[in-house]
Design brief:
It comes from Cajanus cajan. InterPro entries: AP2_Mu_C_sf, AP_mu_sigma_su, Coatomer_dsu, Longin-like_dom_sf, MHD. Oligomeric complex that consists of at least the alpha, beta, beta', gamma, delta, epsilon and zeta subunits. Belongs to the adaptor complexes medium subunit family. Delta-COP subfamily. By secondary structure, the chain is α+β, with helices and mostly antiparallel strands. It has 2 domains: 133 residues, Beta-Lactamase, CATH 3.30.450; 246 residues, Immunoglobulin-like (Sandwich). 24% of the residues lie in helices and 33% in strands. Helix 2 runs antiparallel to helix 4 and helix 4 crosses helix 5. The longest helix has 40 residues. The two termini are 55 Å apart. The relative contact order is 0.09. About 15% of the residues have low confidence.
Length: 530
Protein backbone atom coordinates (compact mmCIF):
# COMPACT_ATOMS: atom_id res chain seq x y z
CA UNK A 1 0.00 0.00 0.00
CA UNK A 2 1.37 3.41 -0.99
CA UNK A 3 -0.71 6.48 -0.22
CA UNK A 4 0.46 9.35 -2.39
CA UNK A 5 -1.57 12.10 -0.68
CA UNK A 6 -4.38 12.71 1.81
CA UNK A 7 -6.54 15.74 1.09
CA UNK A 8 -9.72 17.54 2.06
CA UNK A 9 -11.48 19.21 -0.86
CA UNK A 10 -14.83 20.90 -1.29
CA UNK A 11 -17.43 19.52 -3.66
CA UNK A 12 -16.66 22.38 -6.02
CA UNK A 13 -13.03 21.24 -6.25
CA UNK A 14 -11.38 23.76 -3.91
CA UNK A 15 -8.41 22.21 -2.09
CA UNK A 16 -8.50 23.02 1.64
CA UNK A 17 -5.79 20.70 3.03
CA UNK A 18 -3.42 18.35 1.22
CA UNK A 19 -0.54 16.32 2.64
CA UNK A 20 1.81 14.46 0.26
CA UNK A 21 3.69 11.42 1.60
CA UNK A 22 5.99 10.79 -1.36
CA UNK A 23 8.09 13.08 -3.53
CA UNK A 24 5.65 14.78 -5.84
CA UNK A 25 5.70 18.08 -7.67
CA UNK A 26 3.13 20.70 -6.86
CA UNK A 27 1.90 20.74 -10.46
CA UNK A 28 1.15 17.03 -10.36
CA UNK A 29 -0.80 17.01 -7.08
CA UNK A 30 -2.76 20.08 -8.17
CA UNK A 31 -3.60 18.33 -11.45
CA UNK A 32 -4.72 15.15 -9.67
CA UNK A 33 -6.93 17.04 -7.22
CA UNK A 34 -8.36 19.26 -9.95
CA UNK A 35 -9.38 16.21 -11.95
CA UNK A 36 -11.15 14.53 -9.01
CA UNK A 37 -14.45 16.52 -8.97
CA UNK A 38 -14.91 15.86 -12.68
CA UNK A 39 -14.61 12.10 -12.13
CA UNK A 40 -17.07 11.87 -9.25
CA UNK A 41 -20.40 10.65 -10.53
CA UNK A 42 -23.86 10.76 -8.98
CA UNK A 43 -25.89 7.79 -7.80
CA UNK A 44 -22.91 5.47 -7.42
CA UNK A 45 -22.61 3.19 -4.39
CA UNK A 46 -18.83 2.79 -4.37
CA UNK A 47 -16.49 5.55 -3.22
CA UNK A 48 -13.40 4.95 -5.31
CA UNK A 49 -12.35 5.94 -8.80
CA UNK A 50 -9.52 4.44 -10.85
CA UNK A 51 -7.62 6.17 -13.62
CA UNK A 52 -4.66 5.02 -15.69
CA UNK A 53 -2.12 5.94 -13.03
CA UNK A 54 -3.80 6.46 -9.65
CA UNK A 55 -6.79 5.46 -7.57
CA UNK A 56 -9.02 7.91 -5.68
CA UNK A 57 -10.55 6.59 -2.46
CA UNK A 58 -12.90 9.14 -0.93
CA UNK A 59 -15.60 9.67 1.67
CA UNK A 60 -18.18 12.50 1.67
CA UNK A 61 -18.22 14.62 4.85
CA UNK A 62 -21.19 17.02 4.64
CA UNK A 63 -20.14 19.57 1.97
CA UNK A 64 -16.55 18.22 1.75
CA UNK A 65 -14.67 15.17 0.50
CA UNK A 66 -11.96 13.35 2.45
CA UNK A 67 -9.74 11.95 -0.27
CA UNK A 68 -6.84 9.49 -0.50
CA UNK A 69 -4.78 9.40 -3.68
CA UNK A 70 -3.00 6.01 -3.99
CA UNK A 71 -1.26 4.02 -6.66
CA UNK A 72 -3.21 1.24 -8.35
CA UNK A 73 -1.11 -1.48 -6.71
CA UNK A 74 -2.17 -0.55 -3.17
CA UNK A 75 -4.51 -2.74 -1.14
CA UNK A 76 -7.91 -1.04 -1.33
CA UNK A 77 -9.08 -2.68 1.92
CA UNK A 78 -6.18 -1.12 3.81
CA UNK A 79 -6.89 2.17 2.04
CA UNK A 80 -10.50 2.08 3.26
CA UNK A 81 -9.29 1.34 6.81
CA UNK A 82 -6.95 4.34 6.62
CA UNK A 83 -9.76 6.50 5.23
CA UNK A 84 -12.11 5.55 8.07
CA UNK A 85 -9.45 6.41 10.66
CA UNK A 86 -8.82 9.80 9.07
CA UNK A 87 -12.57 10.50 8.88
CA UNK A 88 -12.78 10.00 12.66
CA UNK A 89 -9.75 12.24 13.24
CA UNK A 90 -11.01 15.23 11.26
CA UNK A 91 -13.92 16.08 13.65
CA UNK A 92 -11.50 15.81 16.60
CA UNK A 93 -9.54 18.82 15.33
CA UNK A 94 -12.17 20.67 13.30
CA UNK A 95 -15.36 20.68 15.31
CA UNK A 96 -17.53 22.00 12.47
CA UNK A 97 -16.95 20.57 9.01
CA UNK A 98 -16.93 23.93 7.23
CA UNK A 99 -14.32 25.37 4.90
CA UNK A 100 -13.36 28.19 7.25
CA UNK A 101 -12.91 25.87 10.22
CA UNK A 102 -10.91 23.33 8.20
CA UNK A 103 -8.52 26.06 7.00
CA UNK A 104 -8.19 27.39 10.54
CA UNK A 105 -7.06 23.98 11.84
CA UNK A 106 -5.07 22.97 8.75
CA UNK A 107 -1.75 22.43 10.51
CA UNK A 108 -3.31 20.33 13.29
CA UNK A 109 -4.90 18.12 10.62
CA UNK A 110 -1.60 17.78 8.75
CA UNK A 111 0.22 16.74 11.95
CA UNK A 112 -2.52 14.17 12.64
CA UNK A 113 -2.26 12.82 9.07
CA UNK A 114 1.50 12.43 9.56
CA UNK A 115 0.93 10.28 12.64
CA UNK A 116 -1.42 7.97 10.72
CA UNK A 117 0.55 7.68 7.46
CA UNK A 118 4.35 7.49 7.21
CA UNK A 119 6.07 7.45 3.81
CA UNK A 120 2.81 6.32 2.23
CA UNK A 121 2.20 3.42 4.62
CA UNK A 122 -0.37 3.26 7.42
CA UNK A 123 0.90 3.23 10.99
CA UNK A 124 -0.71 0.94 13.54
CA UNK A 125 -2.16 3.67 15.77
CA UNK A 126 -5.51 4.55 17.31
CA UNK A 127 -7.27 7.90 17.58
CA UNK A 128 -6.29 8.25 21.24
CA UNK A 129 -2.62 7.60 20.40
CA UNK A 130 -2.66 10.17 17.59
CA UNK A 131 -4.11 12.82 19.90
CA UNK A 132 -1.54 11.97 22.57
CA UNK A 133 1.35 12.19 20.11
CA UNK A 134 0.17 15.53 18.73
CA UNK A 135 -0.38 17.03 22.20
CA UNK A 136 2.78 15.59 23.80
CA UNK A 137 4.77 18.20 25.70
CA UNK A 138 8.55 18.49 25.52
CA UNK A 139 10.56 18.95 28.72
CA UNK A 140 13.50 20.26 26.70
CA UNK A 141 11.25 22.86 25.07
CA UNK A 142 9.98 24.06 28.45
CA UNK A 143 13.53 24.29 29.78
CA UNK A 144 14.64 26.23 26.70
CA UNK A 145 11.77 28.69 27.12
CA UNK A 146 12.63 29.22 30.80
CA UNK A 147 16.27 29.92 29.94
CA UNK A 148 15.27 32.35 27.20
CA UNK A 149 12.86 34.16 29.52
CA UNK A 150 15.51 34.52 32.22
CA UNK A 151 17.91 35.99 29.66
CA UNK A 152 15.25 38.45 28.52
CA UNK A 153 14.58 39.54 32.11
CA UNK A 154 18.31 39.93 32.79
CA UNK A 155 18.71 42.04 29.67
CA UNK A 156 15.83 44.29 30.76
CA UNK A 157 17.49 44.84 34.15
CA UNK A 158 20.79 45.75 32.50
CA UNK A 159 18.96 48.13 30.18
CA UNK A 160 17.31 49.89 33.14
CA UNK A 161 20.64 50.27 34.95
CA UNK A 162 22.32 51.69 31.85
CA UNK A 163 19.46 54.15 31.32
CA UNK A 164 19.75 55.27 34.95
CA UNK A 165 23.52 55.76 34.59
CA UNK A 166 23.05 57.82 31.43
CA UNK A 167 20.51 60.06 33.19
CA UNK A 168 22.89 60.59 36.13
CA UNK A 169 25.78 61.43 33.83
CA UNK A 170 23.64 64.03 32.04
CA UNK A 171 22.72 65.65 35.40
CA UNK A 172 26.37 65.73 36.49
CA UNK A 173 27.34 67.29 33.17
CA UNK A 174 24.70 70.02 33.60
CA UNK A 175 26.02 70.70 37.08
CA UNK A 176 29.56 71.09 35.74
CA UNK A 177 28.42 73.49 33.00
CA UNK A 178 26.09 75.65 35.10
CA UNK A 179 27.01 75.22 38.74
CA UNK A 180 30.52 76.83 38.93
CA UNK A 181 31.48 80.26 40.43
CA UNK A 182 31.21 83.09 38.03
CA UNK A 183 29.56 86.40 37.25
CA UNK A 184 25.81 86.17 37.07
CA UNK A 185 24.56 89.38 35.51
CA UNK A 186 21.07 90.70 34.83
CA UNK A 187 19.32 88.18 37.04
CA UNK A 188 17.24 90.67 38.99
CA UNK A 189 13.56 89.63 38.91
CA UNK A 190 14.44 86.66 36.68
CA UNK A 191 13.23 83.11 37.24
CA UNK A 192 14.98 79.80 37.58
CA UNK A 193 12.33 77.45 36.28
CA UNK A 194 11.98 73.78 36.83
CA UNK A 195 11.65 71.92 33.56
CA UNK A 196 9.97 69.05 35.31
CA UNK A 197 7.36 70.91 37.35
CA UNK A 198 5.67 74.25 37.75
CA UNK A 199 7.92 75.26 40.68
CA UNK A 200 10.06 78.39 40.27
CA UNK A 201 12.74 80.12 42.35
CA UNK A 202 12.80 83.90 41.96
CA UNK A 203 15.52 86.22 43.24
CA UNK A 204 15.00 89.54 44.92
CA UNK A 205 14.80 92.78 43.01
CA UNK A 206 18.31 93.83 43.98
CA UNK A 207 19.93 91.27 41.73
CA UNK A 208 23.41 89.79 41.99
CA UNK A 209 26.32 91.96 40.92
CA UNK A 210 29.29 90.91 38.90
CA UNK A 211 31.74 88.84 40.83
CA UNK A 212 29.40 88.26 43.71
CA UNK A 213 30.65 84.71 43.94
CA UNK A 214 27.14 83.21 44.10
CA UNK A 215 27.14 79.46 43.44
CA UNK A 216 23.99 77.44 42.66
CA UNK A 217 23.17 74.97 45.39
CA UNK A 218 22.65 71.28 44.78
CA UNK A 219 18.89 71.73 45.09
CA UNK A 220 18.85 74.37 42.37
CA UNK A 221 21.25 72.52 40.07
CA UNK A 222 18.58 70.07 39.00
CA UNK A 223 16.56 72.87 37.42
CA UNK A 224 17.23 74.19 33.94
CA UNK A 225 17.39 77.96 33.56
CA UNK A 226 15.81 80.11 30.93
CA UNK A 227 17.43 83.31 29.67
CA UNK A 228 15.98 86.70 30.39
CA UNK A 229 13.28 87.84 28.03
CA UNK A 230 12.09 84.36 26.97
CA UNK A 231 8.36 83.89 27.56
CA UNK A 232 7.47 81.85 30.61
CA UNK A 233 4.99 79.03 30.82
CA UNK A 234 2.32 81.46 31.99
CA UNK A 235 2.38 83.40 28.72
CA UNK A 236 -1.05 83.77 27.20
CA UNK A 237 -0.10 83.06 23.59
CA UNK A 238 3.09 81.86 21.83
CA UNK A 239 4.80 84.09 19.25
CA UNK A 240 3.55 83.76 15.71
CA UNK A 241 5.18 80.94 13.79
CA UNK A 242 6.67 79.24 16.86
CA UNK A 243 5.66 75.97 18.47
CA UNK A 244 2.96 73.51 17.47
CA UNK A 245 -0.64 74.56 17.10
CA UNK A 246 -3.05 71.86 18.25
CA UNK A 247 -6.49 71.36 16.80
CA UNK A 248 -7.85 71.48 13.28
CA UNK A 249 -7.52 74.46 11.03
CA UNK A 250 -10.49 76.09 9.36
CA UNK A 251 -9.42 74.70 5.99
CA UNK A 252 -9.30 71.16 7.41
CA UNK A 253 -12.75 71.56 8.92
CA UNK A 254 -14.15 72.77 5.60
CA UNK A 255 -12.63 69.73 3.86
CA UNK A 256 -14.16 67.34 6.40
CA UNK A 257 -17.54 69.04 6.09
CA UNK A 258 -17.43 68.62 2.31
CA UNK A 259 -16.66 64.90 2.73
CA UNK A 260 -19.59 64.56 5.13
CA UNK A 261 -21.84 66.25 2.61
CA UNK A 262 -20.81 63.63 0.05
CA UNK A 263 -21.90 60.85 2.37
CA UNK A 264 -18.51 59.85 3.81
CA UNK A 265 -18.40 58.72 7.44
CA UNK A 266 -15.77 60.79 9.28
CA UNK A 267 -14.40 59.35 12.52
CA UNK A 268 -13.47 62.11 14.94
CA UNK A 269 -10.58 61.76 17.38
CA UNK A 270 -12.38 61.17 20.66
CA UNK A 271 -10.66 60.34 23.92
CA UNK A 272 -12.02 56.99 25.08
CA UNK A 273 -13.91 57.03 28.34
CA UNK A 274 -12.49 55.03 31.16
CA UNK A 275 -13.97 51.58 31.33
CA UNK A 276 -15.89 51.65 28.02
CA UNK A 277 -13.43 49.54 26.05
CA UNK A 278 -12.83 47.33 29.05
CA UNK A 279 -16.54 46.70 29.45
CA UNK A 280 -16.87 45.73 25.78
CA UNK A 281 -14.07 43.19 26.17
CA UNK A 282 -15.52 41.54 29.27
CA UNK A 283 -16.39 37.85 28.84
CA UNK A 284 -19.92 36.56 29.39
CA UNK A 285 -20.92 36.69 33.05
CA UNK A 286 -22.68 33.32 33.08
CA UNK A 287 -20.60 30.11 33.11
CA UNK A 288 -22.56 28.69 30.15
CA UNK A 289 -23.95 30.69 27.25
CA UNK A 290 -26.10 29.20 24.47
CA UNK A 291 -26.68 31.24 21.32
CA UNK A 292 -29.53 30.61 18.91
CA UNK A 293 -28.91 32.41 15.63
CA UNK A 294 -30.83 32.26 12.36
CA UNK A 295 -29.65 33.81 9.11
CA UNK A 296 -32.29 34.80 6.59
CA UNK A 297 -31.77 34.78 2.82
CA UNK A 298 -34.75 36.12 0.86
CA UNK A 299 -35.17 37.26 -2.73
CA UNK A 300 -38.48 38.98 -3.54
CA UNK A 301 -39.74 39.90 -6.99
CA UNK A 302 -40.53 43.55 -7.68
CA UNK A 303 -43.86 42.64 -9.27
CA UNK A 304 -44.85 40.40 -6.32
CA UNK A 305 -44.03 36.87 -5.31
CA UNK A 306 -40.98 35.19 -3.87
CA UNK A 307 -38.12 33.52 -5.73
CA UNK A 308 -35.99 32.41 -2.77
CA UNK A 309 -36.63 31.92 0.94
CA UNK A 310 -33.97 30.17 3.01
CA UNK A 311 -33.40 30.12 6.78
CA UNK A 312 -30.25 28.60 8.26
CA UNK A 313 -29.95 28.34 12.02
CA UNK A 314 -27.32 27.23 14.52
CA UNK A 315 -27.26 26.51 18.25
CA UNK A 316 -23.80 27.16 19.71
CA UNK A 317 -22.44 26.55 23.19
CA UNK A 318 -19.79 28.54 25.04
CA UNK A 319 -18.43 27.28 28.39
CA UNK A 320 -16.07 29.39 30.49
CA UNK A 321 -15.05 26.83 33.14
CA UNK A 322 -13.62 23.43 32.25
CA UNK A 323 -15.44 21.87 35.22
CA UNK A 324 -18.78 22.65 33.57
CA UNK A 325 -17.90 20.76 30.36
CA UNK A 326 -19.56 17.46 31.33
CA UNK A 327 -23.15 18.44 30.57
CA UNK A 328 -26.09 17.71 28.31
CA UNK A 329 -28.44 20.34 26.90
CA UNK A 330 -32.20 19.82 26.83
CA UNK A 331 -34.01 21.86 24.19
CA UNK A 332 -37.58 22.45 23.08
CA UNK A 333 -38.35 22.89 19.40
CA UNK A 334 -41.27 24.78 17.98
CA UNK A 335 -44.18 23.43 15.98
CA UNK A 336 -42.75 24.36 12.57
CA UNK A 337 -42.68 21.04 10.70
CA UNK A 338 -40.81 22.54 7.71
CA UNK A 339 -37.57 22.86 9.70
CA UNK A 340 -35.02 20.07 9.32
CA UNK A 341 -32.63 19.65 12.26
CA UNK A 342 -29.15 18.15 11.99
CA UNK A 343 -26.82 17.44 14.91
CA UNK A 344 -23.03 17.59 14.94
CA UNK A 345 -21.28 14.30 14.05
CA UNK A 346 -19.98 13.95 17.62
CA UNK A 347 -23.47 14.28 19.12
CA UNK A 348 -25.72 11.37 20.10
CA UNK A 349 -28.34 11.51 17.35
CA UNK A 350 -30.68 8.95 18.93
CA UNK A 351 -30.72 10.86 22.22
CA UNK A 352 -31.74 14.03 20.41
CA UNK A 353 -34.34 12.27 18.24
CA UNK A 354 -36.04 10.56 21.21
CA UNK A 355 -35.65 13.04 24.08
CA UNK A 356 -34.55 16.37 22.52
CA UNK A 357 -31.31 16.19 24.52
CA UNK A 358 -28.00 17.28 23.00
CA UNK A 359 -25.10 15.26 24.39
CA UNK A 360 -21.81 13.85 23.17
CA UNK A 361 -21.53 10.20 22.15
CA UNK A 362 -18.60 9.77 24.54
CA UNK A 363 -19.96 10.64 27.99
CA UNK A 364 -16.43 10.87 29.41
CA UNK A 365 -15.50 13.61 26.98
CA UNK A 366 -16.29 17.21 28.00
CA UNK A 367 -17.36 20.01 25.71
CA UNK A 368 -14.56 22.39 24.68
CA UNK A 369 -14.21 25.41 26.94
CA UNK A 370 -13.07 29.01 26.52
CA UNK A 371 -12.88 30.31 22.96
CA UNK A 372 -12.68 26.87 21.33
CA UNK A 373 -14.54 26.91 18.08
CA UNK A 374 -14.47 30.70 17.77
CA UNK A 375 -15.87 33.61 19.72
CA UNK A 376 -19.46 32.37 19.20
CA UNK A 377 -18.78 28.98 20.81
CA UNK A 378 -19.10 25.40 19.60
CA UNK A 379 -21.87 24.43 17.18
CA UNK A 380 -24.22 21.76 18.54
CA UNK A 381 -27.20 21.84 16.21
CA UNK A 382 -28.07 23.15 12.78
CA UNK A 383 -31.35 23.52 10.98
CA UNK A 384 -32.67 24.77 7.70
CA UNK A 385 -36.01 25.81 6.30
CA UNK A 386 -36.96 26.59 2.71
CA UNK A 387 -40.38 27.73 1.56
CA UNK A 388 -42.28 29.30 -1.30
CA UNK A 389 -45.02 30.62 0.98
CA UNK A 390 -45.00 34.42 0.82
CA UNK A 391 -46.75 34.63 4.21
CA UNK A 392 -43.54 33.43 5.84
CA UNK A 393 -41.67 36.58 4.72
CA UNK A 394 -41.22 38.92 7.71
CA UNK A 395 -41.02 42.12 5.62
CA UNK A 396 -42.27 42.79 2.08
CA UNK A 397 -41.30 45.84 0.04
CA UNK A 398 -43.33 47.42 -2.79
CA UNK A 399 -41.67 50.04 -5.01
CA UNK A 400 -43.70 52.11 -7.51
CA UNK A 401 -41.65 54.44 -9.75
CA UNK A 402 -43.70 56.70 -12.06
CA UNK A 403 -42.50 59.45 -14.43
CA UNK A 404 -44.16 62.83 -14.79
CA UNK A 405 -42.51 65.36 -17.05
CA UNK A 406 -38.81 65.57 -16.27
CA UNK A 407 -39.19 63.98 -12.83
CA UNK A 408 -39.69 60.50 -11.46
CA UNK A 409 -41.83 59.99 -8.38
CA UNK A 410 -40.90 56.90 -6.34
CA UNK A 411 -43.29 55.51 -3.71
CA UNK A 412 -42.04 52.72 -1.47
CA UNK A 413 -44.16 50.84 1.02
CA UNK A 414 -43.26 48.18 3.56
CA UNK A 415 -45.56 45.64 5.21
CA UNK A 416 -44.30 43.64 8.19
CA UNK A 417 -45.65 40.32 9.36
CA UNK A 418 -47.02 40.03 12.90
CA UNK A 419 -44.67 37.10 13.58
CA UNK A 420 -41.69 39.30 14.53
CA UNK A 421 -40.87 42.70 15.96
CA UNK A 422 -38.09 43.99 13.70
CA UNK A 423 -35.28 46.20 14.99
CA UNK A 424 -32.80 48.50 13.25
CA UNK A 425 -34.51 48.17 9.88
CA UNK A 426 -32.58 49.75 6.98
CA UNK A 427 -33.99 49.73 3.43
CA UNK A 428 -31.35 50.76 0.84
CA UNK A 429 -32.68 52.00 -2.50
CA UNK A 430 -30.17 52.48 -5.35
CA UNK A 431 -30.47 55.74 -7.25
CA UNK A 432 -29.24 57.03 -10.61
CA UNK A 433 -26.30 59.44 -10.56
CA UNK A 434 -27.58 62.71 -9.08
CA UNK A 435 -26.08 66.17 -8.69
CA UNK A 436 -27.92 66.76 -5.42
CA UNK A 437 -29.85 64.80 -2.83
CA UNK A 438 -33.33 63.55 -3.78
CA UNK A 439 -36.37 65.46 -2.57
CA UNK A 440 -38.09 63.35 0.11
CA UNK A 441 -41.76 64.37 0.22
CA UNK A 442 -43.02 61.97 2.88
CA UNK A 443 -41.41 59.31 5.10
CA UNK A 444 -42.25 57.15 8.12
CA UNK A 445 -38.87 57.11 9.81
CA UNK A 446 -35.54 58.69 8.87
CA UNK A 447 -33.51 58.87 5.66
CA UNK A 448 -29.89 59.40 4.60
CA UNK A 449 -28.44 60.00 1.14
CA UNK A 450 -25.04 58.56 0.21
CA UNK A 451 -23.90 60.55 -2.81
CA UNK A 452 -20.70 58.59 -3.35
CA UNK A 453 -22.39 55.18 -3.58
CA UNK A 454 -25.60 56.74 -4.91
CA UNK A 455 -28.26 55.16 -2.72
CA UNK A 456 -30.94 56.31 -0.30
CA UNK A 457 -31.23 54.67 3.12
CA UNK A 458 -34.61 54.49 4.85
CA UNK A 459 -34.21 53.69 8.56
CA UNK A 460 -36.87 52.54 11.03
CA UNK A 461 -35.67 51.90 14.58
CA UNK A 462 -38.46 49.46 15.52
CA UNK A 463 -41.36 47.86 13.68
CA UNK A 464 -43.99 46.45 16.03
CA UNK A 465 -47.79 46.37 16.26
CA UNK A 466 -47.91 50.17 16.18
CA UNK A 467 -46.34 50.48 12.71
CA UNK A 468 -46.70 47.23 10.76
CA UNK A 469 -46.82 49.27 7.55
CA UNK A 470 -45.17 52.47 6.41
CA UNK A 471 -44.28 54.42 3.28
CA UNK A 472 -41.81 56.84 1.79
CA UNK A 473 -42.04 59.07 -1.28
CA UNK A 474 -39.22 60.93 -2.98
CA UNK A 475 -38.59 62.70 -6.28
CA UNK A 476 -35.53 62.50 -8.56
CA UNK A 477 -34.85 63.61 -12.16
CA UNK A 478 -36.34 61.36 -14.80
CA UNK A 479 -34.88 57.84 -14.72
CA UNK A 480 -35.72 54.31 -15.74
CA UNK A 481 -37.65 52.24 -13.22
CA UNK A 482 -34.89 49.57 -13.26
CA UNK A 483 -32.47 52.12 -11.75
CA UNK A 484 -34.16 51.70 -8.34
CA UNK A 485 -33.51 47.96 -8.09
CA UNK A 486 -32.28 45.78 -6.46
CA UNK A 487 -33.45 47.07 -3.07
CA UNK A 488 -31.54 45.57 -0.14
CA UNK A 489 -32.95 45.19 3.37
CA UNK A 490 -31.34 44.43 6.69
CA UNK A 491 -32.81 44.05 10.19
CA UNK A 492 -32.60 41.99 13.36
CA UNK A 493 -35.16 40.30 15.60
CA UNK A 494 -35.15 38.58 18.97
CA UNK A 495 -37.49 35.78 17.82
CA UNK A 496 -36.73 32.97 15.37
CA UNK A 497 -38.61 30.73 12.94
CA UNK A 498 -37.58 27.59 14.83
CA UNK A 499 -38.68 28.95 18.23
CA UNK A 500 -35.89 26.83 19.75
CA UNK A 501 -35.50 27.20 23.51
CA UNK A 502 -33.05 25.71 25.99
CA UNK A 503 -35.10 24.26 28.85
CA UNK A 504 -32.48 22.61 31.05
CA UNK A 505 -28.76 21.93 31.56
CA UNK A 506 -28.13 18.37 32.78
CA UNK A 507 -24.84 17.86 34.71
CA UNK A 508 -23.45 14.37 34.07
CA UNK A 509 -21.36 14.32 37.27
CA UNK A 510 -24.27 15.17 39.56
CA UNK A 511 -24.88 18.29 41.58
CA UNK A 512 -26.89 21.38 40.76
CA UNK A 513 -27.18 22.49 37.13
CA UNK A 514 -24.73 25.31 36.34
CA UNK A 515 -26.15 28.75 35.65
CA UNK A 516 -26.72 29.47 31.99
CA UNK A 517 -28.08 32.15 29.69
CA UNK A 518 -29.60 32.05 26.21
CA UNK A 519 -29.18 34.57 23.40
CA UNK A 520 -31.57 34.47 20.47
CA UNK A 521 -31.36 36.55 17.30
CA UNK A 522 -32.58 36.56 13.72
CA UNK A 523 -30.41 38.46 11.24
CA UNK A 524 -30.55 39.09 7.51
CA UNK A 525 -27.69 37.75 5.42
CA UNK A 526 -28.98 38.52 1.93
CA UNK A 527 -32.43 40.13 1.70
CA UNK A 528 -33.28 41.76 -1.64
CA UNK A 529 -36.07 42.89 -3.91
CA UNK A 530 -35.04 42.36 -7.54
Amino acid sequence: QVVLAASIVSKSGKVLVSRQFVDMSRIRIEGLLAAFPKLVGTGKQHTYIETENVRYVYQPMEALYLLLVTNKQSNILEDLTTLRLLSKLVPEYSYSLEEEDICQHAFELIFAFDEVISLGHKENVTIAQVKQYCEMESHEEKLHKLVMQSKINETKDVMKRKASEIDKSKIEKNRGDKGGFGPLQSMGSGKIENSFSDLSISSSGTGFGSGSGFGLSSDVDSFSTKSKGRPTSSATAPPKGLGMKLGKSQRTNQFLESLKAEGEVILEDVQPKLGVSQAAALPPSDPITLTVEEKLNVTLKQDGGISNFDVQGTLSLQILDKEDGHIQVQVQTGENQAILFKTHPNMNKELFANENILGLKDLNRPFPTGQAGGSEGVGLLRWRMQSNDESMVPLTINCWPSSSGNETYVSIEYEASSMFDLRNVVISVPLPALREAPSVRQIDGEWRYDSRNSFLEWSILLIDNSNRSGSMEFVVPQAESSAFFPISVRFTATDTFSDLKVTNIIPLKGGNPPKHSQRTQLITENYQVV
